[in-house]
Amino acid sequence: MADGRWDGSALAGQLLLATPEISGGIFHRSVILVLHHDETGAQGVVLNRPLDAPVDAVLPGWQDLLTAPGNLFQGGPVQLDSAIGLVTVPGPETPPLGVKRLFGTVCVIDLDTPPQLVATGLAGMRVFAGYAGWTGGQLESEIATGSWYVVPAESADAFSDDPEHLWVRVLRRQPGELAWMSTYPPDPDLN
After folding, report:
1. Angle at 16 between CA 31 and CA 147, to 5 degrees
2. DSSP readout, 159-171?
3. What is the mean pLDDT of residues 33-39?
4. Which of 5, 10, 45, 81 has the greatest count of CB atoms below 10 A from its CB?
5. Residue 54: how many CA atoms within 13 Å on its side-chain side?
6. Does residue 3 form part of some domain?
7. What is the DSSP annotation of 105-139?
């Protein structure tokens, strides 16, 4: 996957980076962390779409645990009335109650868990309204037709304090020619 092409392996824990083929909407220059992927479909959250809304407006008690910028994020276009919480748990220890490890230090948190029960065991947190979802075979087809680059995720990607520039930063750290895509203009017609 060093060149952004998918090798057919499981995608959970990987990043999907929108290629220039996706030129508008929520997925334009999006960075998606894949949370689940199997033959029935895939689910992920868009990491670089902060909303101008505090989390306390929809989930009281969690605001003080959030990583900067501290806003609610739009995780995707599906079920915008639902919320998914990602946290980072330092070290290899067993995560706190209500927390399930995805990869490395990145975990999903059950937002029905009382915040005070997990507060001391978290090193970072982000909450997403909605998610990105694909039916069985749909994501694989989109990757095959050139809509997504598939690249390894780093734990810090989900908690970036500068999410608006995450697409460029993730591309820059890729080996070879894929790193060149970080200089691709947002609107090539204006170049």
Report:
1. 105
2. G-S-GGGHHHHHH
3. 95
4. 45
5. 8
6. no
7. TEEEE-TTS-HHHHGGG-SEEEEEEEEEEEETTHH
Burial of residue 41 (number of CB atoms within 10 Å: 0-12, 13-18, 19+): middle
d(CA 60, CA 21): 39
Torsion angles phi and psi, residue 4, rounded to 5: 85, -5
Q: Under DSSP, is residue 56 helix (H, G, I), strand (E, B) or coil?
A: helix
Q: Domain count for the chain, please give it.
A: 1
pLDDT of residue 50: 96
Give the model confidence (pLDDT) of 85-142 as tens digits.
999 988 777 788 889 988 888 999 999 999 988 888 788 899 999 999 999 999 999 9
**C-alpha span between 18 and 45 (Å, rounded):** 13
- pLDDT over 80 (residue 9): no
Tell me the HSE value of 53 on the side-chain side, using a 13 A CA sphere: 14
Interval 150-162: pLDDT, tens? 999 998 999 999 9
User: Where in the sequence is the domain holding 82, given as residue range(s)?
Assistant: 14-190
Give me the pLDDT at residue 7, please.
Answer: 66
